[in-house]
Design goal:
Blueprint (H helix, E strand, L loop, with lengths): L7 H12 L3 H20 L4 E3 L3 E8 L2 E4 L6 E4 L2 E8 L1 H12 L2
Antiparallel strand pairs: 1-2, 2-5, 3-4
């Protein structure tokens, strides 16, 4: 994989090189996987990828904030956000990789 950002195309290419499926099949596999994750999150379900982490939908309450440009108070509506919590395995790998640099 190249660059500082991993794209869908990078994921497809990595699957193609590792598994040997056609690029079209790899693209469909990656797209379907992401679509299933989105569908689960839309239903409010957790998406747990063992050894990677957990994606989950959280509800945030309404609160008062401020416009950063003007400093004026502004109401922030209640909303749902997607959170990610990395697994201990992933945290350890990233820590080791960053320590080696």
């Amino acid at each position: 994989m190249r660059g500082a950002t991993v794209t869908r195309a990078d994921l497809c290419e990595a699957v193609h090189e590792e598994v040997g499926l056609t690029r079209q099949d790899c693209s469909e596999l990656v797209e379907r996987t992401l679509e299933l994750m989105v569908q689960a999150l839309e239903k409010g379900e957790q998406v747990k990828l063992s050894g990677f982490g957990v994606f989950q939908v959280r509800s945030k309450n309404a609160r008062m904030g401020r416009n950063p440009k003007t400093g004026e108070p502004a109401a922030i509506e209640p909303r749902r956000v997607i959170g990610f919590r990395a697994s201990q395995v992933m945290k350890a790998r990233v820590d080791r990789a960053l320590a080696d640099k």
